[in-house]
TrEMBL record:
Keywords noted in UniProt: DNA damage, DNA repair, DNA replication, Endonuclease, Exonuclease, Hydrolase, Magnesium, Membrane, Metal-binding, Mitochondrion, Nuclease, Nucleus, Phosphoprotein, Transmembrane, Transmembrane helix
Alphabetical list of PANTHER family matching this protein: FLAP ENDONUCLEASE 1 (PTHR11081:SF9), FLAP ENDONUCLEASE FAMILY MEMBER (PTHR11081)
Domain of life: Eukaryota
Keyword presence, Lipoprotein: no
CDD domains: PIN_FEN1
GO cellular component assignments: nucleus
Signal peptide: none
Domain XPG N-terminal per the UniProt entry, residue ranges: 32-138
UniProt name for this protein: Flap endonuclease 1
BP-aspect Gene Ontology terms: DNA repair; DNA replication
Organism phylogeny: Eukaryota, Metazoa, Ecdysozoa, Arthropoda, Hexapoda
Protein's organism: Exocentrus adspersus
């Protein structure tokens, strides 16, 4: 499913929200996410999940989790040798992806507002440490694959090492400014800020693959799948 053609819309009705919170005691809850939330929604509130054409939302404002998008582009927008780069060797995959996604959204009458992550919450420190440990292990595996000349393994572990940096975010902000597209810096997590904007009536929906946006209060979620 393509975010540009079709979109998975998750609409949480009042009844659905009650069911979700009532059943939270049966879900493993972590500082940065809720395990099996998607499955729970499909099981107890299947009517809340709809597949619709994005053109249905012509004229709507949508808050987009920018970091999630940049990560997708760094993973998916590649050539045979890896991420796209400029003649100076600087990565441009995130810029190409941002440019074309934004153009397609605007062409379909959608008004995007990109939201960038702010300072991570203290509760996330443990999760960030775990991610760093996984990156160290991935680097070791990449070194082994490189020495063995295993192209498939090299590609796999290169993708696992992808990380959205501050420079990636600044590059994207500069591009959006040149395109006349609004963006904001969240005080903390981008998906939380997106949800707050939905709740305040500033935008119609949140666009992210992070289901935490629902628990933060976003009542409409566009869940893009492939770039």
């Amino acid at each position: 499913m393509s975010f540009f053609v079709n979109s998975l819309q998750i609409v949480i009705t009042e009844y659905s929200v009650i069911v979700i919170w009532f059943l939270f005691k049966n879900i493993q809850i972590f500082a940065m996410g809720i395990l099996n939330l998607t499955k729970l929604l499909a099981d107890v509130a299947p009517q809340a999940i709809k597949e619709t054409d994005i053109k249905t939302y012509f004229g709507r404002k949508i808050a987009i989790d920018a970091s999630m998008c940049l990560y997708q582009f760094l993973i998916a927008v590649r050539n045979e040798s890896g991420q796209l780069t400029s003649i100076d060797g600087e990565t441009t995959s995130h810029l190409l992806g941002t440019f074309y996604r934004t153009i397609r959204l605007v062409e379909n009458g959608i008004k995007p507002v990109y939201v960038f992550d702010g300072k991570p919450p203290d509760l996330k420190s443990g999760e960030l440490s775990k991610r760093q440990e996984k990156r160290v292990e991935a680097q070791k595996a990449l070194d082994v694959a490189t020495e063995a000349g295993d192209v498939a393994e090299m590609d796999k572990f290169n993708r696992r090492l992808v990380k959205v940096t501050r420079q990636h975010a600044e590059d994207a902000k500069q591009l959006l400014s040149l395109m006349g597209i609004p963006y904001i810096d969240a005080p903390c997590e981008a998906e939380a800020q997106c949800a707050a904007m939905v709740k305040a009536g500033k935008v119609f929906a949140t666009a992210t693959e992070d289901m935490d946006a629902l628990t933060f209060g976003s009542k409409v979620l566009f869940a893009p799948h492939d770039v």
